[in-house]
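Ops channel
N.P.: pipeline sanity check, posting one input/output pair.
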């Protein structure tokens, strides 16, 4: 009886895009965009440079694919899930959103992409615009929608939701930079989980509307 298991070479071919994206993420985070070479990505993934070009036209498209795989997908899933959560309180939605943004992105290797964009956006404005449109704007809009929902339901005190969104994003971004040693500072006393619990508790108390 013939085995239904795919031959090793075929399984390998199917896995190549993911292997290339994983290799590219590591190199982009470690070296930055400008210093990352496609031949190094291919070598790290165990394929030829020609094979890489079968999947990605150039380094810009490879970078966009890395961002979509590691960040945009998280945002898209959250948009769908939160739109259906009509029975959940706005406070719980906000806490879940910020917590998941940290655990699924801020605490992961992919968080280094934030550093890359901040460091190299001036030299690569097209990539900065792409990142702003597909990551920053969508993530901020999701938070703003939850805040406006809470105000409309009388769960949150009245406030300017877009401004509050920026206020909420700043501490999480700073924790990301501290945790991943983006700045030369002593982080030995920072426990990310305690930081997030403290921050989220403060947010809930501050936004909660009076009974």
């Amino acid at each position: 009886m013939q085995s239904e298991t795919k031959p090793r070479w075929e399984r390998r071919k199917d896995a190549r895009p993911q292997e290339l994206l994983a290799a590219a993420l590591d190199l982009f985070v470690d070296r930055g965009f400008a210093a990352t070479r496609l031949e190094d990505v291919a070598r790290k993934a165990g394929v030829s440079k020609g094979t890489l070009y079968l999947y990605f036209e150039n380094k810009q498209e490879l970078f966009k694919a890395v961002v979509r795989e590691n960040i945009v997908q998280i945002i898209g899933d959250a948009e769908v899930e939160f739109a259906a959560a009509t029975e959940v309180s706005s406070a719980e939605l906000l806490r879940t959103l910020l917590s998941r943004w940290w655990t699924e992105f801020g605490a992961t290797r992919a968080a280094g992409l934030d550093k890359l964009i901040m460091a190299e956006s001036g030299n690569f404005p097209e990539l900065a615009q792409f990142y702003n449109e597909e990551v920053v704007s969508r993530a901020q809009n999701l938070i703003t929608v939850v805040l406006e929902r809470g105000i409309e339901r009388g769960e949150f005190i009245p406030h300017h939701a877009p401004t509050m969104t920026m206020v909420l994003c700043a501490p999480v971004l700073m924790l990301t930079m501290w945790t991943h040693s983006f700045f030369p500072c002593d982080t030995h006393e920072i426990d990310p989980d305690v930081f997030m619990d403290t921050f989220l508790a403060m947010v809930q108390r501050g936004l909660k509307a009076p009974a």
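N.P.: looks fine end to end. Residues 71 and 117 are 13 Å apart (CA to CA).
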